[in-house]
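Me: I keep going back and forth on a fold encoding question. No explanation is needed for now; the record alone will do.

Assistant:
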Amino acid sequence: MRELLIVAGEASGDLHGAKLAEAVRALAPDLPIVGVGGGRMRAVGVKLVHELDGVVGFVEVIRHIPEHWRLLRALRRRLQAGTVGAIVLIDYPGFNLRLAAVAQAAGVPVLYYITPQVWAWKRGRLREMARVITRAAVILPFEEAMLREAGIDATFVGHPLLDRAQDLPDRATARARLGLPTEGEILALFPGSRAVEITRHLEDFVAVAREIERRRPGVRPVIAVAPTIALDATRVPYPLVRGASFDVLRAADVALCKSGTTTLEAAVADCPCAIVYRTSAISFAIAKRLVTLPYIGLLNIVAGREVAREFVQDAFVPETVAAHLTSLFDAGPARDALRLGLGEVRARLGTPGASGRVAQMAMEMRRG
């Protein structure tokens, strides 16, 4: 029986790969599953042929060219040996598109799950993707038509975060889990999931919270961070919560989110929010030339309009952001309009079960 090969490139991919492996096991308990991943994939029984070095280690290691090519050569040998019935590539296009070309040349069907964000930049990748991808499982609603127009057999499977959100706690339960008081107002802060984002954002996130405390006495700020982020306690005057983003969002009245998947989590959790982001001046200048989207937050990109206010680069001024967030605590037209927009985004993200749909696609494609 030929194996299924799952290749993830970073911590989020490891999580999606683990969920996918579980769904495949439900369909084919005896199918051998091997992969490139981390602890989550290993924990569900995936035989790792290369393990992520910690949570973000592979992302860092892969930037070193020798390691990049050693892993690619090892996977090429495996694909050419004829033991792989299908390969599922999860995100991480810098490496996975090269691997897709290797698999295609070896005659192994390629399923790409969470495809490159060509709608934001590097649209020219569509031609390359059409050459090397057998099928694509996309997680944002507008991606299917875009990829199909480029000749790629794409299917919208829904966003995988919906699988994590099927049993969201109510406000009281979420606060109890986090050890927060049942009464009073909570401000959730999401400064980022990587060390460089924390470096660029944390000081101003704290400044926003302090200004809101001044404007609205009694508000309790809480900072949500990835489990692997180490923070100096002297820089963090507020409680830290690790790895429980939905609980934090359900407990909170208002959130401040770094742009990214957290903004979609806020939509699913129905938590009014604002979106901020800051990068280096050079990176921002390059991005302005390459990215044509009018919004940076995924929440707004999915909505096709500015549902949540964005404060990017020089516009990220703590006093300005605090003034806006303060206005969202009270019931009224601004908060109501924002929550209406969050509901529209939730509806567009599809339905739970993405992992199961991708597993079914993989089984349909697998040879032998």
